[in-house]
Amino acid sequence: MNSFILGAIASGGYLGIFLLMALENIFPPVPSEIIMGYSGVLVARGEMDFAPVLVIGTLGTVAGNYFWYWLGHRWKEDDLKRFIAKYGRWLTFEWSEFIAAREKFRRHGDWIVFLLRASPFLRTIISLPAGLARMKLWRFLLFTFLGSLVWNGALILGGGALSGVIERYETYASWAIGAFIGLGIAWYVWRVVTWEPS
Predict the structure, then answer these.
(1) In this predicted structure, what is the pLDDT of residue 1?
(2) How many structural domains compose the chain?
């Protein structure tokens, strides 16, 4: 499995990483931990370079988050609530989560975009209230880029640091990654099945 994932990322190249990271922030196909982590393994092997992976992956993150910022900036709150009521099940995104993210944004200001993008919590959701609050676009893009740069850099370095362990314990690593992806899919299915408009 490891060879398959590494091969898929390697064959897609830097453009593939950009697209995967953009999609990961719009719709959850594969989490960034897998994309950037395995990109880090390829960097450690010398098959990719650290700086392009980091910058291009981060630009993909910004592109995906801009979609949600644009949605929040373009629509009024009632429009957004109807959209989430209609498509929230498939996005695994609830109105109550948006309200929580909006309150965090109101309390902590623009820097919350940077802090959440550099953490595993509410990383994408914060883009909606940023758009609704009419945060200046250049500030949103800057703080999203910088925060994502920190997060993605940590994932790449982590993947690179573990590359030897992954190669040495190929079978165990395959099972671990398979379990991680399986849990992610199970979580997504559970969210879709149990989702109710809030």
Answers:
(1) 47
(2) 1
